[in-house]
């Protein structure tokens, strides 16, 4: 995945080791603010939005160019079709999404109406009420080939500041990198932060963890052993790799 600028304030980079990100300028002490993961419930409940509707709105915000259909949404969210049908119907009625009628017996699909007058405001609300790890979870939801993924660094330790990046670690055999890039680019735009994905296949990760001469070995061991917020899977998926590298436990 290539590095590219996605907005004046946010850039997505694909880092494969512990090398520094070029062109970074530290913020002054006066402009820094600490972010800590304190919410225990979905902040969208403050607006009377919860359950499947909140999940659907966040998903559409992070994947605005993607067409969705009922069965796929059921698999993604584990929700009953009745509640999702109601959410799709209501969002269609207010003009937020539109039905794409089936052709030759294909399924009914839905897509975001970006020209809807309230779309920009809705994106802003979702971005404000969703911390970067939550947005990252929605970005990776349903992306092919991702076995495990987590946010590490300052957003996992609760020490993130106004200028902090979002560091994402992704492991998978055949990750759909193009779709991953698009989704994480949306996270960068919504959060106003640089997103740094580190993407590895299990084989490459094992090699770099077990080769003493690997320049990224220490970095990878520290990341696996350190604090993290899981966005896909959990530590069990990476336990064999960690054990081979001598990492006793993945939190």
TrEMBL record:
Pfam families: NTP_transf_2. CDD domains: NT_KNTase_like (cd05403). SUPFAM superfamilies: Nucleotidyltransferase. Residues 138-188 form the Polymerase nucleotidyl transferase domain. One of its GO terms (molecular function) is nucleotidyltransferase activity. InterPro entries: NT_sf, Polymerase_NTP_transf_dom. This is Polymerase nucleotidyl transferase domain-containing protein. Residues 1-38 are annotated as: Disordered.
